[in-house]
Write a structure and sequence with these properties.
Layout: H1 3-11, H2 24-29, E1 40-44, H3 50-57, E2 61-66, H4 69-79, E3 84-88, E4 91-96, E5 99-103, H5 111-114, E6 119-122, H6 131-144, E7 150-157, H7 171-178, E8 184-191, E9 202-209
Parallel strand pairs: 1-2, 1-6, 2-5, 6-7
Antiparallel strand pairs: 3-4, 4-5, 7-9, 8-9
Length: 210
C-alpha cells in the first residue's frame, strides 16, 4: 500500500486492526523462540500494538519500525513514557528505557541504524503489504536483522472474498519468501471464531523461522 493509505488511516483513527490486548498467539508461542530475558525483539510495522507492552513486561527489550508518527506518539503516551527523539539516518528515532522505535519507511531502515536484534515478531507487516512488495520486504527484513529467528503470524483466507489489508498469505508463499533462508515450522493453524473482520472465514497461521 502507498504510504498515504496508512497515514490517512491513523489521521482518521481508522485503526480497526489495532487489538485491545496482547495477541493471544504471541503469548502462547513466544517461548518457541527460546529467547533469553533481556533479548531484543524487532517488530516491523508495529503501530501502537499492545504486544510491545507485553514484551516489555516479560523482561525483553523492543525495537520497532513504523510509518506513522501519530501511532508512535500514541504508543509512548499509552506506555506513560516520554521518549528522547533524534534523527537516525533516514528515520526518526524514539528512544526510552528498553525501547527503540524508528519512524519512517521501513525500506530506509538499515541494519546499522536498527542495531543487533535477537528475534523478529511479525504479526502486522507481511500481511499488510501487497503482493508486489512482499518479496522485497522479506529480503530486506532478513538482511537488516542478519537472519534473526522469527515468529510470524499470517492470515489465510479466500482473497477473492475480501480486499486486503490484511492480505492472505498462503503456506506456499511463506516458503517462497523465507524457505531459502530459514528452517520453517508451522506451530499452529487456528480458525478465527468470528472470521476476518467479523465475516470472512479465515485462519491464523503461526510460523517459527530459524
Amino acid at each position: 500500500m502507498h504510504a498515504d493509505f496508512w497515514h490517512q488511516r491513523w489521521e482518521k483513527n481508522e485503526i480497526h486492526f489495532h487489538e485491545k490486548e496482547a495477541n493471544p498467539l504471541l503469548v502462547k508461542h513466544f517461548n518457541a523462540l527460546s529467547l533469553a530475558k533481556g533479548g531484543r525483539v524487532f517488530l516491523p510495522l508495529c503501530g501502537k500494538t499492545l504486544d510491545i507492552s507485553w514484551l516489555l513486561s516479560q523482561g525483553y527489550r523492543v525495537a520497532g519500525a513504523e510509518l506513522s508518527k501519530i501511532a508512535i506518539e500514541q504508543l509512548f503516551a499509552e506506555l506513560g513514557v516520554t521518549p528522547a527523539i533524534s534523527r537516525a539516518g533516514e528515520m526518526t528515532h524514539y528512544c526510552a528505557k528498553d525501547i527503540d522505535i524508528f519512524v519512517g519507511d521501513i525500506f530506509d531502515l538499515s541494519g546499522d541504524v536498527l542495531g543487533p536484534v535477537d528475534a523478529i515478531y511479525d504479526r502486522a507487516a507481511l500481511v499488510a503489504l501487497p503482493e508486489t512488495m512482499r518479496d522485497r520486504y522479506a529480503a530486506h527484513l532478513a538482511a537488516i536483522t542478519h537472519h534473526a529467528p522469527q515468529l510470524l503470524i499470517c492470515f489465510v483466507y479466500d482473497q477473492s472474498l475480501l480486499a486486503g489489508p490484511p492480505f492472505s498469505i498462503s503456506n506456499e508463499e511463506v516458503h517462497q519468501h523465507y524457505g531459502k533462508i530459514y528452517d520453517l515450522t508451522l506451530l499452529e493453524s487456528a480458525p478465527m471464531a468470528s472470521g476476518l473482520k467479523g465475516h470472512t472465514p479465515a485462519s491464523e497461521n503461526v510460523w517459527l523461522l530459524r
